[in-house]
Design a protein that fits this description.
six-stranded mixed β-sheet; RT_dom; Reverse transcriptase domain-containing protein; DNA/RNA_pol_sf
């Protein structure tokens, strides 16, 4: 069963050539002109909306923004949590789930938000028309239902829908109070930390209440059964029965030890054991399928299949879960080697360095390190989200020496080995380590940096 959105931006066109009798070809050409005009207008409005959002949208929003993504958002949140734990503070979080968020957008409220951002009356009239007279129908087994009017929501999968939703909930972050918040589309995490667990949970409850009121004002409903709490802790005594966080309706939120946040499984100790277990299982299943059907594929097809179906799974979030223990990460090496053996037909006894040479791919360690150093460099260039760029600070040399002319970062203080896993600490350390061989004195383009980085990391042996 498929849902078909039969919606159009109503455009009225008058043209002398369309009056009277015209041929079918002329009619098709005219209809095409109308569609092109609609598409051009839509792109124009989206560009205007996008550039306005660059200065208006909240810094703690990552969804539907150029240069922002699930990985950058998770890196920021984990940096805050790890830094707090390193200071022997308690950290509590609420993962907020909204019920049918994009379908619940109130058009009148949204138009008001657009007006507050400074859009002209003509532009507001265009958006009002964009939302007017929308209908949807259901198509199943060749049958099409009658149209049903759609009076609320923004169309998912459309050009403007996701960006308009960002505008709609842009001010929610202002209600967080003493807590921190990060929004990615309709996924929201609210978190806070402090030396006392009671104080932390009290502050979190106060902020959660304010956030709920803010969502209610937008007519967005909380999905209490899917909204979860988590206590992040590695160094302090775990409480036997923490105080419940409740909704405005009086429902207690469930405390969990693992939660899938923006595609990455987080556990309360940030070990990433659950995430790597899921990755391992998913890749094993796919590699098993490929081996069972290996007779159907040429060598080139095998290479392409692994590139398209296996490597993206390993790459997603690898700069996040790279902080896992070597024991856990080695489990991913095993399935990676299996995928390469599928391509090369190499026997099981083939050394992994020989496997990498056969396909021309680096080890997973080098692959993760490459992605990680690229994130650091983007942050230094200002091409990463501001909340990441603000975590790296350039060092100012005291004396002018050959080594001091190289670009380096200030390494912040960390009290524990776990604290050294934070973005702000590990980014500075890893960049300064890279500079021992790279020796950049001025910034180069990202393309040139990737090329030089490839040369730096290619010959490093990762055998242990």
């Amino acid at each position: 069963m498929a849902l078909c959105c039969c919606s159009w931006v109503n455009l009225v066109t008058s043209h002398a050539a369309l009056q009277g009798r015209v041929g079918r070809q002329s009619q098709r050409r005219a209809k095409g002109l109308v569609r092109d005009t609609a598409t051009e207008n839509t792109h124009r409005q989206k560009r205007k909306l996008h550039f306005t959002l660059l200065s208006k949208v909240s810094m703690v929003r990552s969804g539907f923004r150029a240069g922002h993504g699930c990985t950058s958002a998770t890196l920021k949140v984990l940096n805050d949590i790890i830094t707090a734990i390193d200071k022997r503070q308690y950290c509590a979080a609420v993962f907020i789930d909204l019920a049918k968020a994009l379908d619940s957008v109130n058009h009148h409220i949204l138009i008001g938000r657009l007006s507050s951002l400074g859009f002209s009356d003509d532009c507001l009239a265009w958006f009002t028309n964009y939302f007017a007279d929308r209908v949807q129908c259901v198509k199943s087994e060749g049958m099409l239902s009658g149209p049903l009017a759609v009076s609320m929501g923004v169309p998912q999968g459309s050009i403007l829908g996701p960006t308009l939703f960002s505008v709609y909930i842009n001010d929610v972050a202002l209600a967080a109070g003493v807590s921190l918040i990060h929004l990615y589309a309709d996924d929201t995490i609210l978190y806070t930390f402090g030396p006392s667990l009671d104080t932390v949970l009290s502050n979190l409850q106060t902020s959660f209440n304010a956030i709920q009121h803010s969502f209610r004002g937008l007519q967005l409903l909380l999905n209490a059964s899917k909204t979860k709490c988590m206590l992040f802790n590695r160094l302090l005594p775990a409480p036997a029965c923490p105080t419940s966080i409740t909704t405005l309706d009086g429902s207690d939120l469930e405390y969990v030890d693992i939660y899938k946040y923006l595609g990455v499984w987080l556990d309360c100790k940030l070990s990433f054991q659950t995430h790597i277990k899921h990755l391992q299982s998913k890749i094993k299943s796919r590699v098993g399928f490929l081996f069972r059907n290996k007779a159907s594929f040429t060598h080139a097809a095998k290479l392409t299949l692994v590139k398209l179906t296996i490597l993206p799974i390993l790459d997603f979030g690898d700069v996040i879960y790279k902080m896992a223990s070597n024991t856990l990460l080695s489990k991913l090496d095993a399935v990676y080697h299996s995928a390469i053996r599928f391509v090369t037909k190499a026997p099981y006894t083939t050394h992994h360095c020989d496997l990498y040479a056969l396909v021309g791919w680096p080890s997973l360690h080098i692959r993760r390190q490459t992605h990680w150093l690229q994130v650091i460099y983007k942050s230094m260039l200002g091409k990463a989200p501001p909340y990441l760029s603000s975590l790296v600070t350039m060092a100012t040399p005291i004396r002018s020496t050959r080594s001091s002319r190289c670009i380096s970062l200030i390494i912040p203080k960390a009290n524990t080995s776990f604290g050294r896993l934070s973005f702000q600490y590990s980014a500075a350390c890893d960049w300064n380590e890279l500079q021992k061989s790279l020796k950049l004195e001025t910034f180069i383009s990202l393309t040139n940096f990737k090329h030089q980085l490839s040369e730096q990391l290619t010959d490093r042996c990762s055998c242990t």
